[in-house]
Amino acid sequence: MPVLAASPALEELQLLEERPVEGIPAGNLSGLAWCDGALWAVSDREDDRLYRLNSQDGLWQAEAESFIAPPAPPIPLPWGVRMRSWLTALVRGGGLDFEGLSCDAQGNRYLVSEARAAVLQLAPFGQPQWLALPPGMVRQARASGMLLHFNALLEGIAIDPAGERLWLAGERQRRGLLVLHKQASRWHCSGGCVLLSEGGSEPLPAPAEGGKPMPRDFSGLAFHREKLFTLERQAHRICRRQLSDGELERCWSFAAEALTEARHYDKPYGMAEALWIDEEGAWIGLDNGRNARGDGELRPIVWRFAAPKGGWGSTR
């Protein structure tokens, strides 16, 4: 895999606050979304609940909202990948492996299942249902080099406020973006499902593992003002991309705050897995997998960063 040269220094985002999350027994915060006036989270270890995060005494207190997912659609993935996902779920829980959360203006919440390569919709009223995704979506993604490896499948989801355009992020080796459009009650790919597919590695920001190159990745996805924003876990940055083709426009770093001695995790990979963008800033959630960081904190963490100078639409 080719290694890219180090990119120019990026503007560092300002950390406004950080709070641990209390009340997610299984840990592993894997998705965040601001829906109906509140911050919500999902864990990839639990298949039957979301969490409303309530501010309390300097932390986020998680309040569970339970649901019962109907049987998932057939898995459009190879037998080997399916079996590894099944065996992993037996050990750690979370057979659906929800890896992202988004919501539209009507109050619908959307969860992307990595293990099933599917999307579950939770409506404000009525029963949960799996979206009727195009049968060729996964086939197209795999043909482009995405979704080939276990635990490197769909990792992020974003939907527009109207609930008519849906984007999914492939995690790594190769990473990429998929786009779907709603027509009547079904989802279709207009001119193809794959918006972007790219491989390669890049150096990590110091002091993360001494700058050792790691595969490019997407660990979270958000939609804001007709732009896509990708959370790039290994590079410790948020990037703005065009809706039409996923082309990179600009990135902002959060490495300076994430890699302090107190916040650093002694692991060869980043922990940032959840992203939500609004006018005032960004929410980033950490899936620490019950690993302690430098100051000993074991709970999942949510960071609130201020929007960059000039806003998320700024060009410099």
UniProtKB/TrEMBL annotation:
Q: Which residues form the Phytase-like domain?
A: 25-173
What InterPro entries has UniProt attached to this entry? Phytase-like_dom (IPR027372)
State the Pfam families in the record.
Phytase-like
Protein name (database record): Esterase-like activity of phytase family protein
Species of provenance: Pseudomonas zhanjiangensis
